[in-house]
Amino acid sequence: METEKPWLELYPKETAKNVYYKAETLPQLLRNAAIEYPKHKAVHFMGKELTFKQTYQKSSKLAAYLQSIGVNKGDRVAVMLPNIPQTVISFYAIMLAGAIVVPVNPLYKEREIEFILNDAGAKVIITLDILYNRVKNVQEMTSIEQILVTSISEFLPFPKNLVYPYIQKKEHGIIPSVKHEGSTHLLKKIWKKPVEEFTEHSLNFEEDLAIIQYTGGTTGFPKGVMLTHQNLVANTAMCRQWLYKLEKGKERLLAIMPLFHVYGMMTVLVLSVMEIYKMILLPKFDATTALKTIHKQKPTVFPGAPTIYIGLLNHPDIKKYDLSSIIAAISGSAPLPKEIIDRFEEKTGGKLVEGYGLTEASPVTHVNFLWDHDIVKGSIGVPWPGTDAAVFSPETGEMLPPGEIGELAVKGPQVMKGYWNNQEETELVLKDGWLYTGDLCYMDEKGFFYIVDRKKDTIIAGGFNIYPREVEEVLYEHPAVQEAAVVGVKDSYRGETVKAFIVLKEGEQVSDDELNTFMRTRMATFKVPRIYEFRDELPKSAIGKVLRRELKEKETEEGR
User: Fold this and answer.
1) Does domain 458-557 sit in CATH 3.30.300.30?
2) Which residues partner with 501 through β-bridges?
3) What sign for the dihedral angle of Cα 52, 53, 59, 60?
4) Fold topology of 49-202
5) pLDDT tens-digit series, residues 56-78
6) pLDDT digits (tens, 9 = 90+) for 459-476
7) Residues 82, 60, 269, 85, Cα dihedral to 10°
8) Within a 10 A sphere around the Cβ of 525, how many other Cβ atoms?
9) What mean pLDDT comes out for the span 517-522?
10) Fold match between 49-202 and 458-557?
11) Contact at 8 Å (CB) between 103 and 88?
């Protein structure tokens, strides 16, 4: 089934229409970087830096140790760490050992950790001392045989490394203590061991898995997305071609997006190694820390999410900081309000565009043009080089023409191999080479795509289809609104009605009636929220995506 590709005519001449990359696995990319750019800085973390050569050496040492404790080719090794140097080292060490990375969100509770470890069949987990008890409490119920433990302080410069245990005590009540026993290993002791040779396994670029990334579980239990080395390398090569004004070996990349999520993984862990960028790691998002880091470290590339950009722009002291080093920023995970784009570009002088993707596509499929085109408001942009996209009718399965709403499907070398041990779910989303995203969408005549909403989030009120994203976009235009989320709630007359959850900007006030008037002048009456609830914050995932599901579940529990 062929698709028309009008977007190709829009590509700047510097952007190739196809994606180009060598068939080199992820550990090969790190080895190449260490050989060709040994003294180039790879990692910056709170004042401490590692070169590409040092990063490869430490990854090799850890790979040898993993093999010595029984990790073989194809085994799954879990990594439950925030954005710290050990995450970078562990990611590549596991693959150097021939194994598969299973990222685990450090915020997960014991029940969630247990599920992922069991589903993936992970033999080993690498985690933090402050998270150790959570892992130890579920170890007997999982397939975990070995626990490798590290501390944030291990890669802090003097004297921060001495002070950090007291910071932990203040934040967590105690200085974490890890019992060193047969199945528990301390990374600080591994670093001191002599360098050992690891057994290098031959990895199949197209077929062997690099990671099993678990989805957020918005539709039941999380599913393990199987991503190969080719999936991640191809998607990163697409990113490299899109950022054609950036220079290899000269950029600095701000790593706020969590590395345990495939978006942070691709745009930081893989892109930085492929293009020899310095990764500036921040273990968690704090607006003040982020602004200070940008001011001092001068990052040029800043992948993020709308909530991160909103948090920075609304910081009361933002005028004190110089953000002019930023050249390019790509936002993912949620709709990006036009107001935020304008304010960010005015403050930085760089470009901020909205993109689109999903874990099953490694993850990016569409992005707006950074340069040589005006931003198209409300659009997720056009497919990346080497990526095909089409809109299909949910009723007939036929490909739809421009302007008609249907389900977005994508095709390309970044599309997953399938769901781990879940052929039934795989067959529901992979059909004839297409990945069906579950998002409602339309394409205009020029080839720009517009997400209407997720199929499951559509509100049906009085027979009309209402798409939460469209309502949220209008709410974001109100000068008092900082964040907004819209869900459908039960209504005895309309079936469902629209409810909006609002977070106001600091110092702002607005009434239900004022919002009602504002909305009615901008959209059809049947789409306007009937209920407003003001909150201090909205529930979010680890990558900053507002969790509408949680808001809706709360409404259901309360009988509304």
Assistant:
1) yes
2) 485, 533
3) positive
4) Rossmann fold (3.40.50)
5) 999 999 999 999 999 999 999 99
6) 877 656 677 887 888 899
7) 30
8) 8
9) 90
10) no
11) no
Amino acid present at 257: M
The DSSP symbol for 265 reads I
C-alpha 181/C-alpha 283 separation (Å) is 28
- CA distance linking residue 235 with residue 429, whole number of Å: 19
Residue that has been written with the tokens 């409300």 in this structure: 378
The pLDDT tens digits for 342-393 are 999 999 999 999 999 999 999 999 999 999 988 887 899 999 999 999 999 9
Write out the H or E segment, with its range, that includes residue 530: none
341, with CB counted inside 10 A (0-12, 13-18, 19+), is buried
At residue 151, the 3 state secondary structure works out as coil
CB 464 within 8 A of CB 494: no
**How far is residue 483's CA from residue 340's CA, in Å, rounded to a whole number?**
11
Smallest CA-to-CA distance from 99 within 129, 67, 127 is with 67
* DSSP output for 164-206: HHHHHHHHHSS-------TTEEEHHHHHTSPP-PPPPPP--TT
Instruction: Tell how far CA 357 is from the center of its chain.
Output: 9
- In 3D space, the residue among 548, 122, 507, 67 whose CA is nearest the CA of residue 335 turns out to be 548
Q: Which uninterrupted H or E stretch holds 413? A: none
Cα-based angle 89, 545, 77 (whole degrees, multiple of 5): 30
Two tokens, residue 125: 């987990």
How is the chain split into domains, by residue range?
A: 49-202, 458-557
CB atoms inside a 10 Å sphere around CB 179:
9
